[in-house]
Specification:
With 965 residues, the protein is α+β, with helices and mostly antiparallel strands. 43% of the residues lie in helices and 18% in strands.
């Protein structure tokens, strides 16, 4: 069913084989391997063949091809199974797990790395920093664990010598937020012994090759691996801790090493030596120190080395868990925390010499195969029968009998081994083998040389053979008892608990117990491992499993060689052919009716949003008939079964399309609801605002009315009344109201004035508009007389009256606007005393020394403007149309300091306004004017010794010198 691969690469899914036979299966597997296609499906199981070479199929572009795709939309790949597990977790909010199984060297560890890499690549689209930190920790933890837990074996250069199960926790958005690692059965015997051609854990060699000399010196070690008996079997021994005998006394050969151990263990030298040579034993109430034999001392040394390394490894796993575990996560606040588990555990092993570790490892694989059989084969067939679906039974090998052979109470191999370890007296591995022969003599999957005397492949009193699901394995019982007891003398535990190194101390909490307190026998290694395997299988069984079945194509790590019989054997014991038969006969997908409706009810009008049919089963039938898939579906008692994934993909596509429409509909409804809520809030706020504004307006108007109610009867008509502060909305209204009041107040004041007083008020208003803020003293506080020549010069007042009467008769003017004595500049640029008489028709210049004889008159219509300075001087320049300006300075005032410039300007402006003519008033310094057609400048300069104002000629015009302060 997988797309995008032509038939030249074989069938991408073994379910598509024309005939389900071992020959066709192997031919297809071989063809795909030779064509570089290392992944093939069996339904939703990925079969992976180790290519033994780097392949460019794991980059970012490949990740994008599989991201969000259904399983069969792309060629088979690990990324597809990882994406399927991730989607199942997100869609159904269900925990999933990926179980990776196969022989040692089949590529399980690399497969788990690529799966982790893919999950990291497709999560956290928003690039949240905390999620990135968690992802980096999850990925980088592999390097540390491989360094301390992997080793080179004859079958695999990077063999995992421990089992690892990692849970990755995801938040409700599908982003990783943490994880937890469980480790199983570290092969600690490798610390002290390796078979020919194999090595110890990588960390030893990495330390010797990569550590700086200063660190090596502090650890008292050198770079040559052959110097150490533990990591080079048969090598030249230099500086290793060994024991000798002097009579009946056991001694340490090189006592200098005791001080080295003291430094490394951060404890006392005498305590180290004592723990190596003596054992404290409690006999009733008495505590005695028993000296070790040479053999016992060597055993204690090796047990200490193994235990320390195992505790170190568990401490490293614990430290990693402390960092990556989910913290401060509250499901009520953050949503459900879902999990994807990845199991990378040692594969089935058959070595030249198979001991206790291989027995445990192969038992682990039996448990995982049992889980696979239960979930994929047995449960599938039982479910069809339970649901009443027509089904042809398929035979398969159920390895429950082998699991029982190992773990059954009182009869199993583990039980016999534990019983032998608890016997009092001299207990040997041969006694254990005799116990097996006695209890398992009739078991079809167990034999030994005693039970099969003619089988020369087995040694007497040493070997027994188990017929595993993966083949026959011969085990040597040598070391079974010691490895199962896993004895470490309490003296060593106390020694390390009392270390000043806090890490070492934390690794040995039971060291705080004295010999007399240690009464309960600890669980054996077999029991601990059995319990952990049962717990692991229970954990996996409660999750939705996805499988990667790894196959090793040859034993020489060649990228070209496909050993047919070698691979056929793995296909047989992995049960892959039975898996194909079950998948061919069965259905790709099944789900309970309520859950199926919950996911797909939106694609049918009969089921959305809820159906009114008699049952959920009827509703599902109506839905599938409406979609045209009735031919590809079977209906069980509680579940619907879909035969081909293509139907499921089509349902998913229709669901995605409808979800988009539903989301848009929900968004529309929700946005409409939000808009209506917002509208109601705005409307309510507006009503409140309008009511408040009305209240503020009414309050303001009432207050204005209260304050100004009796202004007519007030002495100043309300000028002293303070206006209330208006609300913002009434600021312009207040301005208009003030304007109305001011007009009323002004009208009230002037309506009782005589015509002469009214003229004076208008002149003062005109003066104020023109000069306010420009000159300091405008003379507004006094009465304006206008015709000042009578008052200023009483001796010549009669002459002036006679002349003005004659001019009125001759020129027919109506009234005198202004008159005053002045200092004037004549046409010869000289200053002389004159008088100025301004009527409503002319401006007259008079000679006060000749009884005010008129010198020359200027028609008032010929005056275009008036310029005055901003100072206290009495300078006035009358601008005319013919550019013959008149420059004068008022003088001879009585009283002497009276300022009449404001009165002159205001009177002229008022008169011009009454005649609807414009008079330009300038307040500048210096003043620009035109004398006899020539442009000039008049400057005012105060002088201290000046007694009265006077003009002098300057280069640019004239200077008016005025008395200084």
């Amino acid at each position: 069913m997988a797309e995008h691969e032509s038939l030249e690469f074989g069938k991408a899914d073994f379910v598509l084989l024309d005939n389900v036979s071992m020959e066709e299966f192997m031919a297809n597997l071989k063809l795909r391997f030779e064509k570089g296609r290392i992944y093939t499906y069996i339904g939703e199981v990925v079969v992976s063949v180790n290519p033994y070479r780097a392949m460019n199929i794991y980059g970012r572009d490949t990740v994008e091809q599989y991201k969000g795709r259904e399983l069969y939309e792309r060629p088979p790949h690990l990324f597809a199974i990882a994406d399927a597990a991730y989607k199942a977790m997100k869609r159904r909010n269900k925990d999933t797990c990926i179980v990776i199984s196969g022989e040692s060297g089949a590529g399980k560890t690399e497969a788990s790395k690529y799966i982790m890499q893919y999950i990291a690549a497709i999560t956290n689209p928003n690039q949240r920093a905390e999620v990135e930190r968690v992802k980096n920790m999850l990925l980088k933890s592999n390097c540390v664990l491989e360094a301390f837990g992997n080793a080179k074996t004859n079958r695999n250069d990077n063999s995992s010598r421990f089992g690892k199960y990692m849970d990755i926790n995801f938040d409700f958005k599908g982003d990783p937020i943490g994880g937890h690692i469980n480790n199983y059965l570290l092969e600690k015997s490798r610390v002290i012994f390796q078979q020919e051609g194999e090595r110890s854990f990588h960390s030893f060699y990495q330390l010797l090759r990569g550590a700086p000399d200063s660190l090596l010196r502090s650890l008292h070690i050198q770079k040559d691996p052959t110097a150490y008996n533990y990591i080079k079997v048969g090598g030249q021994i230099k500086g290793n801790l060994t024991f000798g005998v002097d009579g009946d006394v056991t001694l340490i050969d090189n006592t200098k090493l005791v001080s080295v151990l003291r430094d490394l263990l951060s404890t006392k030298e005498e305590n180290v030596e004592k723990a190596l040579l003596y054992r404290t034993v409690a006999t009733g109430r008495d505590v005695i120190e028993k000296q070790h034999t040479e053999q016992e001392a060597s055993y204690g040394r090796d047990a200490l080395a193994k235990a320390m390394y195992e505790r170190l490894f568990c401490w490293i796993v614990g430290r990693i868990n402390d960092i990556i575990e989910v913290k401060n996560y509250d499901a009520r606040v953050h949503g459900k925390n879902t999990v994807i588990g990845v199991l990378d555990i040692y594969g089935f092993e058959i070595f030249q010499n198979n001991s206790f570790e291989q027995f445990c490892i192969n038992y682990c694989n039996e448990k995982l195969q049992q889980l696979f059989i239960q979930l994929v084969l047995k449960q599938e067939q039982e479910e069809y029968q339970r649901e009443g679906i027509p089904w042809k039974h398929i035979d398969y090998f159920n390895n429950q009998i082998i699991v029982d052979l190992v773990e059954q109470q009182h009869k199993g191999i583990f039980s016999v081994l534990d019983e032998a370890c608890m016997n009092v007296g001299k207990v040997t591995d041969e006694v254990f083998l005799q116990g097996l022969n006695g209890k398992l003599a009739k078991h079809a999957h167990y034999t030994s040389r005693k039970l099969s005397p003619t089988d020369k492949s087995l040694e007497f009193d040493r070997d027994f053979r188990i017929r595993h699901y993966a083949g026959d394995v011969v085990y040597s019982v040598v070391g079974f008892i010691d490895k199962n007891k896993d004895t470490l003398f309490q003296d060593f535990k106390i020694l390390l608990y009392n270390s000043s190194n806090p890490v070492l101390k934390a690794m040995w909490p039971e060291g705080k117990l004295s010999i007399t307190e240690v009464t309960k026998r600890p669980l054996t290694a077999a029991t601990l491992f059995k319990n952990s395997m049962i717990s692991l299988v229970e954990n996996l069984a409660c999750k939705e499993p996805y499988y990667v079945r790894c196959i090793k194509p040859n034993d020489v790590k060649s990228p070209l060689l496909f050993e047919l019989e070698r691979c056929r054997h793995q296909v047989e014991y992995l049960g892959l052919l039975e898996n194909v038969r079950v998948r061919r006969a069965g259905f790709a997908y099944r789900q309970t009716y309520p859950r199926f409706l919950q996911r797909y009810k939106m694609i049918s009008e009969f089921t959305w949003p809820n159906h009114d049919l008699p049952s959920d089963k009827d509703a599902v039938k109506r839905l599938m008939q409406g979609c045209g898939f009735d031919h590809d579906v079977a209906y069980g008692k509680t579940k619907v079964f879909i035969r081909t994934p293509r139907t499921l993909f089509s349902l998913e596509e229709q669901r995605v399309e409808m979800v988009q429409r539903i989301v848009l509909f929900l968004q529309k409804v929700w946005r409409g609801t939000i808009a209506r809520m917002r509208y109601r809030r705005m409307r309510a706020a507006l009503v409140i605002l309008q009511a408040y504004r009305r209240y503020k307006v009414k309050s303001y108007i009432r207050e204005v009315n209260r304050r100004f109610k009796n202004v007519r009867s007030m002495k100043d008509y309300g000028r002293h009344v303070k206006w209330p502060t208006p609300p913002k909305v009434l600021r312009k209204f207040e301005e208009a109201l003030r304007s109305i009041y001011n007009r009323w107040w002004a009208w009230t004041l002037i309506k009782g004035l005589s015509p002469e007083e009214a003229l004076q008020v208008r002149a003062k208003v005109a003066c104020l508009e023109a000069l306010k803020g420009q000159r300091a003293d405008l003379g507004l506080q006094r009465a304006w007389e206008g015709n000042y020549l009578k008052r200023d010069s009483p001796d010549t007042a009669a002459s002036f009256t006679l002349v003005s009467s004659e001019l009125q008769r001759k020129d027919k003017f109506m009234r005198v606007l202004f008159s005053c004595n002045v200092r004037k500049i004549n046409r010869f640029h000289k200053a002389e005393d004159r008088a100025v008489l301004i009527t409503d028709r002319h401006l007259y210049k008079m000679d006060p020394l000749k009884q005010y004889k008129p010198m020359k008159s200027i028609p008032l219509y010929n005056v275009t403007g008036v310029s005055v300075s901003p100072g206290k001087d009495q300078l006035v320049v009358f601008h005319t149309k013919d550019n013959r300006d008149l420059v004068v300075c008022l003088q001879g005032m009585v009283p002497a300091n009276e300022n009449r410039i404001g009165e002159l300007v205001g009177t002229l402006l008022s008169h011009f306004k009454s005649e609807k003519r414009k008079l330009q008033v300038n307040i500048v310094s210096p003043i620009q004017c035109s004398m006899n057609g020539r442009k000039c400048t008049v400057i005012v300069e105060p002088k201290i010794n000046q007694s009265h104002p006077d003009f002098t000629k300057s280069r640019s015009g004239y200077i008016l010198a005025v008395p200084g302060n």
